[in-house]
């Protein structure tokens, strides 16, 4: 789920001593305006803010940001006093005005044949509005968004670097104001060099999906962290950044009781959010299903996400009194979590498989010669005798290749045909094995790492970012948010 860590970091950036400037750059459609307005929304209750748009109308934005008209320069300027400044420094503004009057800078509003002397309010009224606003809110660290400096430059024929230099010198450096400059141009070395911060927004196709990234290139006076890249969505016209999060499990036993589920032909996938990945928006799959969790690429983040999904599936299954056999490489970690958090009455439904000679009523000992021989009917019936059907059978290709060698596919397919009438089969498949078994799947969920984030999809229509939410008992669950 998106949260405010990124926006809070930027708030801290602007709260430093002295004023700060931030350049927000990106291609059209990247969401620069939406990002800037989302930040203003985040701080407007505690800081004076102004949104100055060079566009013809702000009305299309007010549906998502209904507060915008109150803070728009088009309305604010009518409430500002039309007088000389009493607080704000305007030395650079005066120099700009003089250079225009002398003809050293030509604008679309000057004619050197007329001999007229124009003040800056006549030349560039938007700039005058910014100065008036800072003057009125002096010593309050106001934040102004100029959207966009390229449009303002084109409108008046003044170079964007000149406009930025004047605002930065007078308002940021000498008057303590904060300015966010939206820039359509992807590379303007001069602006980026003199600004205190740079945020770059972009989007790209990743395996046929549109993925949006925001990169914090610099924030003067602050650390941007080990990975200054955020994934974000523009769902419903709002800027929604996503955070990388770690998964923690409770360290104490939870109050859990087996509650028998009346539906005897379906198995829970473990998370309500998974309904977004299943046809008909269901969070359960029918008896006999083969589900593949495809690890497109290997990373710590992908492993953590797969294990979180797996552990939730197991937890929900055993709490319904159904049996689980776990033959995956992560069974040790899962077993430790289950033992730490569940009562013994629930744990009897969870069975692990390993290549060992350990004697335990909760462990299937594997010989490692044949997958079919290690899981005969009588063994499964014995270990699942106290559990209701349908069961859940979990395998992972790395565990199977380690235990049986690389030629386990034939036995795996034979075993699937034998046991699928008693439950569902879930296979965690690494990419090198996925193609060999993919056509047997009724449902495939792809897990891929992108800049430390984990993206999930089961079709080519939508892609979701995986994050963690916690219930009242602090048990971690999967949260899926669509990237649009």
Features:
ten-stranded mixed beta sheet, elongated, alpha/beta, 484 residues
Molecular structure report:
By secondary structure, the protein is α/β, with parallel strands linked by helices. Helix content is 32%, strand content 25%. The protein has 18 helices and 20 strands. It has a 10-stranded mixed β-sheet with strand order 14-13-12-15-16-11-17-18-19-20. Strands 2-3-4-1-5-6-7-8 form an 8-stranded mixed β-sheet, sandwiched between helices. It has a two-stranded antiparallel ribbon with strand order 9-10. α1 crosses α2 and α5 packs antiparallel against α9. It is elongated, with a radius of gyration of 30 Å. About 2% of the residues have low confidence.
Contiguous helical run count: 18
List the uncertain runs. Answer: 109-118
Mean pLDDT: 87
Number of strands: 20
The value of Rg in angstroms is 30 Å
* Helix percentage range: 25-40%
Structural class: alpha/beta
**Which of globular, elongated, flat, extended, rod-shaped describes the shape?**
elongated
Q: What does this entry show, briefly?
A:
With 484 residues, the protein is of the alpha/beta class.
Describe the secondary structure blueprint for this structure.
Layout: H1 5-14, E1 21-26, H2 32-43, E2 49-53, H3 68-71, H4 73-76, H5 91-101, H6 120-123, H7 125-136, E3 143-147, H8 149-156, H9 160-173, E4 178-183, H10 189-194, E5 197-206, E6 209-219, E7 229-233, E8 240-241, E9 266-268, E10 284-286, E11 290-295, H11 300-319, E12 322-327, H12 331-341, H13 344-347, E13 350-354, E14 363-365, H14 371-374, H15 377-383, E15 388-396, H16 397-404, H17 409-419, E16 423-430, H18 431-437, E17 443-450, E18 453-457, E19 464-470, E20 476-482
Parallel strand pairs: 1-4, 1-5, 2-3, 3-4, 11-16, 11-17, 12-13, 12-15, 13-14, 15-16
Antiparallel strand pairs: 5-6, 6-7, 7-8, 9-10, 17-18, 18-19, 19-20
Helix pairs in contact: 1-2, 5-9
């Amino acid at each position: 789920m998106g949260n405010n860590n990124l926006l809070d970091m930027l708030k801290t950036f602007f709260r430093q001593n002295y004023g700060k400037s931030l350049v927000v750059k990106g291609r059209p459609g990247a969401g620069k305006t939406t990002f800037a307005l989302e930040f203003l929304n985040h701080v407007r209750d505690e800081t004076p803010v102004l949104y100055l748009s060079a566009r013809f109308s702000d009305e299309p934005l007010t549906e998502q940001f209904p507060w915008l008209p109150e803070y728009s320069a088009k309305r604010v300027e009518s409430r500002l006093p039309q007088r000389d400044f009493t607080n704000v420094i305007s030395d650079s503004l005066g120099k700009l005005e003089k250079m225009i009057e002398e003809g050293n800078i030509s604008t679309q509003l000057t004619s050197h044949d007329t001999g007229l002397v124009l003040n800056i309010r006549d030349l560039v009224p938007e700039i005058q509005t910014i100065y008036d606003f800072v003057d009125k809110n002096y010593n309050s660290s106001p934040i102004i968004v100029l959207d966009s400096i390229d449009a303002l430059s084109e409108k008046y024929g003044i170079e964007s670097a000149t406009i930025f230099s004047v605002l930065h010198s007078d308002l940021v450096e000498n008057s303590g104001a904060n300015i966010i400059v939206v820039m359509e141009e992807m590379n303007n070395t001069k602006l980026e060099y003199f600004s205190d911060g740079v945020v770059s927004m972009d989007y790209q196709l990743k395996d046929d999906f549109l993925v949006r990234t925001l990169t914090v290139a610099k924030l003067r006076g602050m650390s941007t962290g080990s990975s200054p890249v955020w994934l974000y969505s523009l769902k419903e016209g709002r800027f929604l950044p996503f955070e990388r999060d770690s998964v923690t499990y409770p360290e104490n036993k939870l109050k859990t009781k087996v509650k028998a589920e009346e539906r005897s032909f379906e198995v829970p996938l473990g998370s309500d959010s998974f309904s977004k990945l299943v046809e008909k928006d269901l969070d359960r799959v029918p008896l006999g299903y083969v589900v593949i969790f495809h690890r497109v690429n290997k990373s710590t983040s992908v492993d953590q996400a797969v294990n979180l999904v797996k552990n939730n599936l197991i937890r929900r299954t055993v709490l319904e009194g159904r049996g689980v056999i776990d033959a995956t490489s992560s069974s040790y970690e899962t077993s430790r979590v289950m033992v730490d958090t569940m009562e013994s009455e629930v744990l009897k439904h969870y069975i692990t498989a390993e290549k060992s000679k350990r004697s335990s009523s909760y462990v299937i000992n594997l010989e490692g010669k044949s997958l079919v021989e290690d899981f005969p009917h009588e063994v499964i019936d014995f270990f699942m005798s106290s559990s209701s059907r349908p069961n859940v059978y979990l395998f992972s290709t790395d565990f199977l290749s380690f235990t049986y060698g690389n030629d386990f596919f034939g036995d795996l397919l034979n075993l699937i045909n034998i046991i699928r009438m008693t439950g569902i089969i879930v296979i965690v498949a690494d990419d090198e094995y996925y193609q060999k078994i993919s056509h047997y799947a009724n449902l495939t969920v792809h897990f891929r790492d992108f800049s430390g984030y984990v993206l999930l999809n089961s079709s080519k229509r939508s892609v979701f970012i995986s994050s963690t939410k916690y219930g009242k008992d602090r048990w971690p669950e999967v949260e899926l948010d669509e990237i649009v």
